[in-house]
Amino acid sequence: MSVTFFVDSTGEGVNMANSNAARVLGVLGYGELAGEAEADDFLGRVLVGLALTPVDAGRPAAAEGNFIDCGRRAGYIQERLEELRGLAEEARARRLPVCWG
Q: Can you give the pTM of this predicted structure?
């Protein structure tokens, strides 16, 4: 499963695995894997996240039974926040909300 952040359904979005999206959404102060926010609010949260979140050390891959967690490379959260920054700036310029789900 995955979560995609987007401005509208016709453009490209930022896609993440559920566990990574949950981590990024937590940094932004959101608790749900589906939602919508005004562009200015979302951009503000992204900027605060970039300023205050320590550099992501990553997480090694792990397997437990049939469940496989592919892990997360170091710096992943900051990379994704930068991508979301661009998405939020696009949404702001187009006066549209940022959506995810």
A: 0.89
